[in-house]
Model the fold of this input.
Amino acid sequence: MSKKILIIGGVAGGASAAARLRRHNEQDQIIMFEKGPHVSFSNCSLPYYLSGTVSSAEKLVMMTPEKFSKQFNIDARINQEIISINRQAKTVTILNHITKTQYTESYDKLILSPGAKPIVPNIQGKEHVNLFTVRNVIDITNLKQAISEKNPQNIAVIGGGFIGVEVAENLREAGYNVSLIEAMPQIMRTFDYDMVQILHKELYDHGVELIVGDKVESFAPNQILLNSGRVVPAEIVIMAIGVAPETNLAIAAQLDLGRTGAIAVDDNCLTNDPDIYAVGDAIEVYGALIQDKFKLALAGPAQKQARDAADHINGINNKSRSYIGSSCIKVFDLNAASTGLTEGLIEFTKLAIEYGTVYITPNDKVSLMPTNHTMQFKLIYDKNNGRILGAQAIGKGNVDKRIDVIATAIKFNATINDLCDLELCYAPPFGTAKDVVNMAGYVASNLNTGKFKQITANKVRELVKINAYILDVREEAELARGIIKGATNIPLSQLRDRLAEIPKNQPIYIHCRSGQRSYNATLILQQHGFNEVYNLAGGFLALSYYEYYNDITTAREAILTAYNFN
Done:
């Protein structure tokens, strides 16, 4: 017996559900409603239209109603908004934005995929600025048209998440003066503070005026007034501080919301109504690592949920699904990716986890290859059982590949010892025989078994202040690229012959360029009776990235004589 299935929302979740439903059953009547003029557009590609990377707005649209009809026999209705749900009668009321008329449709099953809406706080004076958001093709087209017409001297982006950073990057690539304002001390909370300094530097180096730790207080004509008293000129303002799930329909229909304020669903994406499902950015999901519900506004999970809902409508029960949150982003010449937990999230949510961290700066390919680059890689693991909790990677190479491996490992409850055993593809143009992921496993295993101890870059400034003994084991020719003030240089090649110069009555903090030679030096000193020896994780490279942006933008006294980034 055929079913009549209505879908509210025609982008990632809604379009995917519609296609999956049709693959299940040729006889079902499937109607998809989208209140805007486009269905199945590439939401994540919107910022790239600003720079011309995507050459036309039309290319952002992946499918048209005509294609849905011809290829899938799906009735995709654009400019038609569901304004109410009658659960008792199993009908919805639709407003046709073209004809300004209303009508009703009945349903056997209903799927909600309304997405999320940009958060636009009611900031004093917002009527004085040209304010835009980026959610759909119309938004990005209006923004680009306004920029073309006004030819602004200054554009400001408020919010340092994915959309904010990508919009700022693409506007800068297009040649505009761009300010990026973030109220928190850092952009991109999917990365820890130590890792995100690399992205701060990249934005700064490419001419974006990055302002962190300063909140927008009010607007004036062509100006943004910040909490610090700073005034940022801007003829165009893009609000990108985040999104909130679209729940108005669900609330009006008395569907249950979860603790997060998003729509509550079960493992089959079913709401508390047995005939209504919800998918995508509007729902809350279960976090495998935090063991709690959270909101996850990503296209990949939305498409998985769409499949689950379509399957259950057709009699297929789904296994319990959980999420860890995996994402990547390009920031000018750098690629960045993360998965799972960050240190910041663990501390903020007060998760009862005794965790350890690994920070390494290995080559992403064999050093002889012209495409080789250094990669900054951070791994987080559970000290008690070695279980992998998360990872972050930033570099010019394939960071997504490495983080995908970690995401897969987390999914199957792998440990740091499993990372050591992974057999990964190797050829000099692609990677190294000991891949970055393997190396992280080796370091984590050594730390967890007490083979050596480490300090991280965020501790070094305090060590310099107290005149701690910092041992630089780089060769003398490398020192011109920068040193830690007050450090003692004994090259690794001379270390065994100069052990008598090193004090045994105080802690020794050792560094090299990347952390590998200093690790060897750490083991040498330990085997010669030095008890308090610490390796600087990530070496001088990691320290340079950690210190640079704050040094440059706050005019504080530097602890390095110069910075080394390669």
About this structure: Residues 539-554 form the longest helix (16 residues). Residues 85 and 253 are 6 Å apart (CA to CA). The two ends are 65 Å apart (CA to CA).
